[in-house]
Amino acid sequence: MSCFCHSFTHHPDIKQNSQLVPSHCPYYPTAMAPTGAKKGLLERLDAGEVVIGDGGFVFALEKRGYVKAGPWTPEAAVEHPEAVRQLHREFLRAGANVMQTFTFYASDDKLENRGNYVAAKITGQKVNEAACDIAREVANEGDALVAGGVSQTPSYLSCKSESDVKAIFRKQLDVFFRKNVDFLIAEYFEHVEEAVWAVEVLKESGKPVAATLCIGPEGDMNGVSPGECAVRLAKAGASVVGVNCHFDPMTCVATVKLMKEGLAAANVKAYLMTQPLAYHTPDCGKQGFIDLPEFPFALEPRIVTRWDIHKYARAAYNLGVRYIGGCCGFEPYHTRAIAEELAPERGFLPEGSEKHGSWGSGLDMHTKPWVRARAICSAIMGSPGGTGGNWTPKGYGCSNQKQ
């Protein structure tokens, strides 16, 4: 992890909305996000820039009371647009420069699957249109791109034909094209075959396409290895390939490493991306966290810390991944941790860092001395505190209330 300047957020040179940084600190830039005309996804990646994805909308909005666990469909874009808009803004403020449309499971067949009322009451077209409008509105508030997203379908799992499945994707693509999204993402696919079909449809738009599978090191549900999956996606037309969801950050990094090796062996080029869970999943099998008995209502004890995300962001970057984001469980503070860890490479901090001292340095303003001591120790050690005796008031030797 990078060693951040302990007190940069309290330095007198720092101004609101500009984040000027003391000249003695080599790790921090002199400005916030770049201004001017926005560069496209491939322009940014071609230039070696880090693209930061947003986080887990369906889980976050389920916890807030706007999404039903089970179907996980995004009708909140129509029913509660203010909730979706606010979450986009929080991820933007945290450092995300991709606003992914809240269109996960927004295909017509999913919206009418197993008694779901959305297709009949609202229609898939309205859900997709509303999601695009909200994402664009918030993206225009910063240096963010809009990505239109499709995901796996009940039609494929019901053994419908390739043409039938592709027709489902084309309905969503029609909305994305009319709403002029900046690029497209095929995400959350358990079978590479269906993901390839999605990529082939999305490529018809002429826009850049990214594709991620919800797989781990064992590969897709049919046993296709991560390396072979990456090759198939790239050959289908995906400029960016990787994984999302189902597994924890470091497992996803390990899986993308296998993808990278597969691409190299086949002499096929593609950029890499990771958008993992924000949950620890060391005990998961091939299907990841959905097989855990805690899924989906008791996963909180598995939540990763912001410090875990610093490690993830650095590991992904060192592997060569340049599109780094999150999926289920990822809250804005996790996204901010990515942006802060990679601030030296990106050249700026997110707006949300105005209220976050590096490595917890804001704790030096706390009234309790043993809490202030944690800020001091985290800065000196370059790592966060853990658990155990040394992290108690007695361990610090500062429990005397007169101190």
In short:
The protein is α/β, with parallel strands linked by helices. It has helices at 41-46, 57-63, 76-79, 81-94, 108-111, 118-121, 124-139, 154-157, 162-178, 192-202, 226-236, 249-265, 306-319, 332-341, 343-346, 369-381, 393-396; strands at 51-52, 98-100, 145-150, 183-189, 209-213, 240-244, 271-275, 323-324. It has 17 helices and eight strands.
Structure description:
The chain folds into two domains: 37-355, Homocysteine-binding-like domain (TIM Barrel, Alpha-Beta Barrel), CATH 3.20.20.330; 360-396, no CATH class. It has 17 helices and eight strands. The chain has helices at residues 41-46, 57-63, 76-79, 81-94, 108-111, 118-121, 124-139, 154-157, 162-178, 192-202, 226-236, 249-265, 306-319, 332-341, 343-346, 369-381, 393-396; strands at residues 51-52, 98-100, 145-150, 183-189, 209-213, 240-244, 271-275, 323-324. Keywords: Metal-binding, Methyltransferase, Transferase, Zinc.
In terms of topology, how is this protein built?
Elements: H1 41-46, E1 51-52, H2 57-63, H3 76-79, H4 81-94, E2 98-100, H5 108-111, H6 118-121, H7 124-139, E3 145-150, H8 154-157, H9 162-178, E4 183-189, H10 192-202, E5 209-213, H11 226-236, E6 240-244, H12 249-265, E7 271-275, H13 306-319, E8 323-324, H14 332-341, H15 343-346, H16 369-381, H17 393-396
Parallel strand pairs: 1-8, 2-3, 3-4, 4-5, 5-6, 6-7, 7-8
